[in-house]
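Deviations from the work plan: none for this task. Representative record:
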Amino acid sequence: MTSFSSDSSAGLLTSVQDQHQALASGQTSAVELCQAALARIAAHDDLGAFLHVDAEAALTAARASDARRASGAARGVLDGIPLAHKDIFVTRGMPSTAGSKMLDGYLSPFDASVVERLAQAGAVSVGKLNCDEFAMGGSNEHSAFRPAINPWSAPGQPLIPGGSSGGSAVAVAARLLAATTGTDTGGSIRQPAALCGITGIKPTYGRCPRWGMVAFASSLDQAGPMAQTAWDCAALLQAMSGFDERDATSAPLPVPDWLAELAQPVHALAPRGTAQQPLGGLRIGLPKEFFGDGVQPEVLAATQAALAELQRLGAELVDIALPRTPLAIPVYYIIAPAEASSNLSRFDGVRYGHRADSPRDLAELYTRSRTEGFGEEVKRRIMMGTYVLSHGYYDAYYLQAQKLRRMIVDDFQAAFAQCDLIAGPVSPTVARALHTGEAVDSDPLQDYLADIFTLPASLAGLPGLSLPAGLGAQSGLPVGLQLMANYWQEGALLHAAHLLQQHTGWHRLAPAGFEGSAA
Ligand code: GLN
């Protein structure tokens, strides 16, 4: 590649923004960027970030981007930028597996909305990223194909990248790509972003169309971008957002120009903002339930340090309460499996998915196809979901959970009367050791409990962003800061994160051996 790609000190060419500038100034081409990404992806295949790479299709798209630029018809900041999609998005021409044997080799006749929109913006898709099966999990250990490995692991001691968008986070953290797509049902963008030291945003439910996303829990699933910086996330989210008539829950709202908002020196919600204190008067609520005993001390310390930076930028920290936070776990683990059990009923070996060989009758066709096609975690969710929806238990579990979900929404609305944003940790711990074999399914509850800080915003449908807050003092592993906002306020999250990133260097920290561009 070109000479400047080795300048890791400036983080050159590892962000969308840098790549775009290099393309716009003619320092590099989309084909060169694409080739460099493909070389890095091949060199680091052992990280397990990818389930499928299509070099030929990517280079064809890159050549088309270069041709557009040469004729003065470049389409904007994403034109020519290599990226990849979580394998939960269906893609024409590349297999779409959702991380499951059930869909092994499945070729979709169409592209998911967000895939289509990013391609339309000129981005070059190089492949499909590893994830937990049907996005169920927080470790990527539940991928039916292979685990993804956190690039912050010490040699010989693999750590989880988080999940379910584990491959999406690994690809960015290891500088294989500047940006990827992910999905977040209960934290699957924010938690892997935190554990891998990158930035990710789950927008308001309804902001990005779900058309072409393999459904897990339809009332919770949202697409979003993952990248090194808030600016890069804004660039992708801009292209991914907006009404799509093919998704009945897609919001018919205009999409703000987030990149223009980020160019504003002072935060729109900061009534006393100045050049020195751009967050002047912005109230950031700290829910006491997010700062309790269950949080690792090093996570707490890094979170506090990031909050102190926000304060230096003028933000006012206010104590708030989200009293139903502990209930988010039981509520989510009733509602999400209930919806999953219904969504996954279509995988019966007839309409979709793996079909068992030579069944004796129809009943055996269904049973064996599903038994063979689904992994342990997915089966666990289907059983939980079927149970809470069954006659006699529906009122006791599902209906109760729906009522409590409403109360979690109310908690947030009460909190937003006192503050503009809410902040706290993303995950109570840094990345844990990766389990393999039988150990993967030894203690599912432990992973469910670790979702406590991401589930509330998911259940309420609110936007949430995770950004790097430095490394834990004990482990040296990344810690994420979570920012949440009221409905449709993604701009506020992106702006606050962008300002923080302009004043700190946490988002530029790279795991050893992955600094700068490897090509
Ligand atoms: N970890 C959560 C779960 O296993 C969240 C998954 C997600 O957001 N897709 O359900």
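The longest strand covers residues 464-471.
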